[in-house]
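Researcher: Structure prediction, please.
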Amino acid sequence: MDFMTVQQASELWEVSPRRVHKLCADGRIKGAVKISGVWLLPPDAQKPADARIKSGKYIGFRNKNE
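Model: Predicted structure follows.
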């Protein structure tokens, strides 16, 4: 079975290798496994959707009185 490395995934998805490490550690990439300290991803793994708030309404971010 072939696997994709973090470096290959970062180039494919156009993100940093550190971001791919974080996604793997958070369990957001289905099928990713850590073997001897190295993350291996399935070759058909998809980049997870961005989970940041997109509404612009950050609760308690600026003015806590409003």
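Model: The radius of gyration is 16 Å.
Researcher: Thanks, that helps.
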